[in-house]
Amino acid sequence: MPDSCTVISLVPFPINESKPGLYPGHFKIPPAKNNDFEALIVGRSVHYVYLDEDRGSVQVPTPSDEVARSICEDYITDIFGVQKGVAEPGIFFIDGAYVQKDGEPDKKTIAQIAKDKIEQARARQRQWFVHLVEIADDEWSKYHTHKSISDLQRFAAKILGLEREWNVDAKVESTGFCPACKMTVQVGAMICGNCRTVIDKEAYQKAGFTQV
Q1: How many structural domains comprise the chain?
Q2: I want to staple 125 with a disulfide (CB 3.0 to 4.6 A). Which of 69, 90, 143, 195 is the partner?
Q3: What is the pLDDT of residues 110-146, one digit of tens each?
Q4: What is the pTM of this model?
């Protein structure tokens, strides 16, 4: 049973996993950038088991591999568009702690030891992005509405270098409120469609309209 494990993440988003009842039980991994990976050293945690009123609770150790497995599997299970073992975020763990003198993960050593697993995780993650785009394509063909497409799916299309009609800037569909009647208006609108208040006077004047 290892005293510590190394969680390896190729996920381009920050990971924040909380394990209620475990101490320590909050684990953060920064987003992986530039086709690289991030690593987190995980040691043993403990949890408490209640026995009875007389004896109270007893501290029980949780092995590092169980903690690391929970971090990886819970993250994969909770995220959208996963096909377990085929198309999933690139996060996994290996036994042992590989650290530099300053205590930071030794990414050079980790890259050598886990080379094959990293490449396999990278392939599964790419397939996950492909699957996310496929789901978005299907949703778009059925409903043809940008609201049915998530930011995660837009990111997947972008990272794969794919152009899609549904992959628009989310700001295009954002709304605000009219300062006069407080009804929702499209961001960039010159005039409120409800009360006809001129919202953007400068744009209104440049368009050649005359304010009444």
Answers
A1: 2
A2: 90
A3: 999 999 999 999 999 999 999 999 999 999 999 988 8
A4: 0.77
